Amino acid sequence: MVSDKSQIVLGCLLAFVVILSLNFTAAAIEIVSPANYTNASGRIMINFTYTNVTDIRDPLIANTTFYFNNVAVPVNNFTCLVNSCNVTLNTSDIADIVGRNLSVILGNESTLKPADANASFILIDNTKPVVFSGNISNPVTETNYSRNMTINVTVVDTTAGIRAVIFNITNSSGHQNGTFAGVREGTTNQYSFSINTSHFTEGLYNVTIKANDTSLGGNLNDSASVIRFRFDNTKPVVFPQNITAPLFVGNHSQNLKLNVTVFDALSSIRGVMFNITNSTGVQNSTYIATREGATDRYSVIINTSHFPTGLYNVTIFANDTTEGVGGNLNNSAISYEVRFDNVQPVLTLTCTPNPLVQQATLTCSCGVTDALSGVNGSRTSFTTNPSTSNTGVYSTECTSADLAGNAKTELLSYTVTSSGGSGGSSGGGSSSTTTTASATKTTTLAKIAPETPGIVKNLGEKFGMKEISISVNSATTNVKVTVNAYDSRPGSVSTKDGKVLKYLEITQQNIGSMKNAVLMLQIPKIWANSKGLTTSDIAAFKFKNGAWVELPTVFKSEDIGSYYFEATSDSFSFFVIGEKVKVVEQPEAVNNSPEVEETNEEVVDLAPTEEKSSVSFATIAWILLLVIVMAVIVVIVYKKRH
């Protein structure tokens, strides 16, 4: 029987063994943070708890080891409370890798391996997201924006995802004006945010992108920025007074230059348009204007003949260079009741008496009406008492225009007769009559080159010509060309047969070697029709060697009031424009001899043949010669005897 003392000793030994066995039992460890599948960067706090059935506080806890994928890492700070420890690790000592296993082994668990210890799966990430200034789609440096604006950037992080993208807006002085969180666009790498620029003071701004990944604390990249873009919500300045053309309540015809002055104090002009609507508000057309050099003027040329005659309104659409939804549009400037009129006025020219005798007074009047734009009285011109000093058929004209600029010329022919009867033009030589030119035009051409003809322009119906094109063989300068038009024959030339529109005299100075001159004739249709002439009946003639010589004349075109021809001459002289000389065809000779019926009877020619006539003539000649010889012999014999 065991003594009580032995039992006590045995019990103590058993208790000591139990205590020892309990003291070296593996502790129950649980990693509280970071949570499983967490991203970590920089310094991270690891918190774990443990339980040990024998100790409230394990004296060997300071020897606890931390592993990342079985590789031990140093501990920066270690703090333990009752069954709980906080440890600070510097992840910058650990290479970035996806899928690091964090393991914790207490110092008194020397028999355990990291793979057997309590573990958590976390991501070590010390790499900043990738974002450059070039990744910013909007805004753009040195660009203007108004109203709603979308800021857009592309951000990439290959190690972890993106935690947040922040758009930080500061003004040009560096003062922060707003911070906006970007929203990911679907599953793309693009982040954007829309703002209303009208909530900002107009001026220059900078935007900085702050991109952070999803790690604890995150890796911040704020190196991407755009500087010097403008918030501009002020419309360009344009008023109706800035519209040079078309004028308010104005009349216009043919080509019209639309012109306006527009400026913007904050940014430049993005575009200017002229919007044309008729008087009922129906839009007819829109034209984009072009800036005139570096000025604030914008213009475009339109052809009003493409519009029906009537009243129109012209609205200016001026937009500055802001981006976004259309920029700042100003369409408040309008020209109202602009008339497009391409109809000529109506001219009524009358002259009385007609016909009249030489030196009598011819009185003419010209009435002008225009139902659309009205008559421009300052442009109405006609001769009240045309000349009647010479007999013949002459013409006088009335020229006028409406307030839209449509000009028209009306011609009227009148006949001057001699006191003894009817007169008229006739052929024949020149006379000593001196006629004053009805119109004169002198043009100076600075230079004419062989490759560039010189043009004498703007002659018109009073000269019977539109223009003269002069070609030279060698370059010449300071060329002077004078054109005189005569309503009747000048005294230096003979009268041209047929109907005559104009006599002309063209002179020149300094041309040198002229290749040719092309006369662009302008023949009033009213004159041609009144004379019964067609385009094939009209030509130009040059006075040469005392006679009128027809020039090569080709019909080219026509308009509502005139026919146009081209006549070519190798020199200048007197010319006449009129009717071609008609060649009178001679009738065929008529044979009035009676017809001889054909018969089968043989016809006997009783007339002597040519051979017989020749023999008879020879015989007579010999007889005459013999008589002459005998006469000579008789004379000689007679002289000898006496």
Walkthrough of the structure:
With 642 residues, the chain is mostly beta strands. The strands form 10 sheets. Strands 14-13-17-18-11-27 form a 6-stranded mixed sheet, with no helix packed on it. It is elongated, with a radius of gyration of 58 Å. It starts with a helix and ends with a helix. About 9% of the residues have low confidence.
Q: What structural class is derived from the secondary structure elements?
A: mainly beta
Question: How are the strands of the largest sheet arranged?
Answer: 14-13-17-18-11-27
**Helix proportion range:** under 10%
Uncertain segments: 15-24, 420-434, 584-615
Number of strands: 46
Cα-atom Rg, whole angstroms? 58 Å
Largest sheet: 6 strands, mixed
Number of alpha- plus pi-helical segments: 3
Overall mean pLDDT score? 80
Could you tell me how far the N terminus lies from the C terminus, measured between alpha carbons in angstroms?
246 Å
What percentage of amino acids are in beta strands? over 45%
Described by the principal axes of the CA atoms, the overall outline is elongated
